[in-house]
Amino acid sequence: MSGAAAKKASSGPSGVVEWISSACRFATDRNDFRRNLLVNLGLFAAGVWVARNLSDFDLMSPQPIA
Prior knowledge:
Layout: H1 3-9, H2 13-28, H3 33-53
C-alpha cells in the first residue's frame, strides 16, 4: 500500500487530531488571500446564522407603546 492509502485506511483518534490540526493550519495561514477570504466569509455566515436563529426578539415586529 502506498503512504496515502495506508494513511486513509487508518482510523481513530490520530485521524481526527490530524484533521483538526490541518483545519487550524488552514484557518491561520496569513499569506493566502483566497484562504483568508473563505475563512472570513464562513465566520460571517456563521454570525448571520446565529443572529437570525438565536435572537429572542424580532426587530421588525411592532413594539408596544409604553
